[in-house]
Design a protein that fits this description.
The chain is α/β, with parallel strands linked by helices. The protein folds into 2 domains: 99 residues, Beta Barrel (Elongation Factor Tu (Ef-tu), domain 3), CATH 2.40.30; 123 residues, Rossmann fold. The protein has 5 helices and 11 strands. Strands 4-3-6-1-2-5 form a 6-stranded antiparallel sheet. Strands 9-8-7-10-11 form a 5-stranded parallel sheet, sandwiched between helices. A hairpin with a 4-residue loop joins β1 and β2. α4 runs parallel beside α5. It is globular and about 50 Å long. The structure holds flavin-adenine dinucleotide.
């Protein structure tokens, strides 16, 4: 386990559609990361924000945790945001700092039950990490639902399908309401509720828009998810933070 800060090098970069990028990253010292599928790293982008703090941003690892030395992240450009712009423009070969791996969005080791993974928007990266992780290999069934505005929002459906293990079943709920739409949480709860009602899941993991996944957790609990069995990773609009 190599948790902590490290220098990393961007060893490969390629565009994903118009507004996102796939980056392959390795630690400078060649050490293994010790991450589990679903976890993320925090990258110091080197940009100083107006208040004087450095812009450090979280990115989930989308590669399989079978490979611990060379990992992939996918970064969507968010307006003029400092972190996502640096990572969309940085040259291959460049070096940055990161810390991690972090995060509790992961299936327990030895998991052998039925798992539901719900992603909204860019949260598909964490969902891919979970589905490709070693823990998912023992799952009896893994259902992945992705609520996303359109196929060119971020990574494409094809990109996701190409990387999913066979046993994972992906349902893309495309044409979903845009981020910030007031009806998003209710619509997500209705859509997901319809699809999973009556299915006994042993674990549920949700990643993406905090405005959606917190209400979704309540809905899944109302549908019978055992207490504590629904894990969340809010990428933005985190209701627990003053400013997300
Ligand atoms: C645990 C975790 C994992 C993450 N994994 C990824 C990932 O794999 N890929 C990825 O592209 N991003 C991911 N993010 C989001 C990422 O950390 C940054 O928030 C994002 O890149 C924007 O940073 P910025 O500095 O460019 O813009 P900022 O100025 O920091 O962001 C502007 C605003 O946009 C919000 N925002 C962030 N993402 C979105 C979005 N998709 N839609 C609408 N608003 C958004 C931010 O919360 C902020 O309020 C993750 C976030 C967390 C907490």
């Amino acid at each position: 386990m190599a948790q902590g800060s490290a220098k990393i090098r961007i060893v490969h970069a390629e565009p994903l559609g118009h507004g996102a990028r796939l980056l392959r990253v390795e630690r400078d010292d060649g050490a293994a990361l010790g991450f589990a599928g679903g976890q993320y790293v925090i990258i110091n982008t080197g940009v100083t924000l107006p208040g004087g703090k450095l812009a450090k941003r979280a990115y989930s690892l989308i590669s399989s945790d079978a490979e611990q030395r060379s990992v992939e992240i996918a970064v969507k450009r968010i307006g003029a945001g400092p972190g996502s712009n640096v990572l969309n423009d940085i040259a291959a070969g460049a070096e940055l700092e990161w810390s991690g791996p972090w995060g509790k969005l992961r299936l327990p080791d030895g998991f052998s039950g039925r798992a539901l993974v719900v992603a909204t928007d860019t949260g598909i990266t964490a969902a891919l990490g979970v589905a490709r992780g070693a823990a998912a290999a023992g799952a009896a069934q893994l259902d992945l639902l992705w609520l996303v505005e359109s196929d060119d929002y971020f990574v494409s459906e094809r990109f996701v399908r190409e990387r999913l293990p066979e046993r994972a079943r992906l349902t893309v709920l495309g044409g979903f309401l845009p981020v910030g739409h007031p009806e998003r949480p209710a619509r997500a709860c209705a859509l997901v509720g319809e699809l999973v009602a009556g299915v006994p899941y042993d674990a549920a993991l949700c990643a993406g828009d905090g405005a959606v996944i917190y209400p979704l957790r309540d809905r899944l609990a109302a549908l019978g998810a055992p207490e504590g069995s629904v894990l969340l990773e809010s990428f933005f609009n985190n209701p627990l933070k003053k400013s997300a």
